Amino acid sequence: MLEKLGLTLKNAMNKIANAVFVDKKLIEEIIKQLQRSLIEADVDMVIIKEISEKIRKKATDNIKSLEKKEQIIDILYKELVEILGKDYYELDIDKEKKPFKIMMLGLYGAGKTTSSAKIGFYYSKRGLKVALIGLDVHRPAAPEQLEQMGKKGNLTVFVDKEEKNPIKIYEKFKDKLSKFDLVIVDTAGRDVLNNDLISEIKKVHDEIKPDKIILVIPGDIGKAAKRQAEGFSQACKINGVILTRLDGTAKGGGALVSCSMTKSPVIFIGTGEKINEIESYDPESFVSRLLGMGDLHSLLEKAKMAIEEKDQKKMQDRLEAGKFTLNDLYDQIKAMQSMGPLDKISELIPGLSGLMQKKDLGNMVNVQEAKMKRWKYAIDSMTLNERENPETLNSSRIGRISKGCNVPGSEIRELIKQHKVMKEMIIQQASSMKGMQNLDPEKLARGDLQGMKRKDLMKLAKMMKHSKIMK
After folding, report:
1. Which CATH number fits domain 3-83: 3.40.228.10, 1.10.3720.10, 1.20.120.140, 1.10.10.60?
2. What is the pLDDT of residues 222-251, one digit of tens each?
């Protein structure tokens, strides 16, 4: 996502960090680098000039104290956040209202149907009962596409493949929709925003009375997003924007800036075709990722999308009880794989994201990802008893598993060893946490250790040491 812009910004950060002096010459070099990357990202030239002048003025005004390099990095960070949206917007969904309705708008090819399913999946992972309804009666195969996407997210989908009146389709399913917490309405599009589309949007809007309206815009149209956002806003009140196709375009920066200029907040960004490849858009986290500082907000969201809520609780209960079998390790590998490639996940982790530019570390991550896939194959080839009791895996059984999954015996032994290490650490952590349950949390929070027994102090020290190792 905007890799070239991100790479340029990381190079600028490195230049600041490695500079002996931060002077006017260095500031001008950084501004030129930033200008080139923003032009390539299709950001409007007026905006580029404005941000350049702001950075130049703020950096120059503080030139005497610029031996603290963090100041210029902070200026760069804040100005990028300003032009890329400034604030974090979240859809305010009233969980008491049933059904809460979101109406989706957009032109052909924007990714409206896919985004409808993605949003449905996103909120279903947050405990809402979600339904999708297809009111696109013009585009061939639109109902089938919505059904297929809904199936991938395990969502209920209502479509009528014969009816050509969107109002009648909505009326047909209206009673059934009332049983859901959230209803996503996929509407029709056109090649351009014309009078026919505006008329249909208004009719559908008046019938379903949506609580929120979201506009879907492809990120690869760059600054042309401004015209689309303004055009749809005139037809009806837009509550937010989803930018799609940011995974394969250099023009996403222009689209993000354009939406910010039209006061149409970007709420979600699409990062791929899969049902879980959608993120809530937080300008601060986004810029942090571009600068190589990681993005924990998106990392936590990916984790929520990867693991069912009931499975999260089950996994937590088992870990707290100190239970960790190869089945548990298998579930964790599966969850990590569904979050996306390991090198992309690493970019979201503060500290590790900047290091990913180094070839050796990048190669190590790729090697580990391939190894985890083979570990998964190996666990697939084990019996249920072997997964639950890996200590029973002797040379004979390892040989059988190796032949069954075509994974070298040495890697299977490495898997068993890794599981043993992880299990011991989990048992230690569970034991430490259990021992701390009777301690006063308020005293611990303010560092008051007086009155604690020696054995509890030992447990606290052990737990803190373990936490440092985990970090």
Report:
1. 1.20.120.140
2. 888 888 888 888 888 889 999 998 876 667
Positive or negative, the CA dihedral 184, 187, 192, 195 is negative
DSSP notation for 396-407? HHHHHHHHHHT-
pLDDT tens digits for range 341-381? 655 665 555 544 554 555 555 566 667 778 888 888 999 99
Locate 171 and state its tokens: 């009326």
With a CB cutoff of 8 Å and minimum separation 6, the contacts of 138 are: 188, 189, 190
Q: Write down the pLDDT at residue 397.
A: 93
For residue 108, which amino acid is it? Y
CB atoms within 10 A of CB 445: 8
444 in Cβ contact with 459 (< 8 Å):
no
Q: What pLDDT was estimated at residue 468?
A: 40
CATH 1.10.260.30 placement within the chain: 307-437
Phi, psi of 284 (to 5 degrees): -65, -45
CA separation for the pair 373, 366 (Å, rounded): 11
Burial label for 45, CB within 10 Å (0-12, 13-18, 19+), is exposed
CATH classification for the domain delimited by 100-281, as one of 3.40.50.300, 1.10.606.20, 3.90.79.10, 3.30.300.210? 3.40.50.300
The architecture CATH gives domain 307-437: Orthogonal Bundle (1.10)
Pick from 273-277, 304-308, 388-392, 424-428: least confident: 304-308
Q: Which of 105, 112, 60 is nearest to 245 (CA)?
A: 112
This prediction has a pTM of 0.65
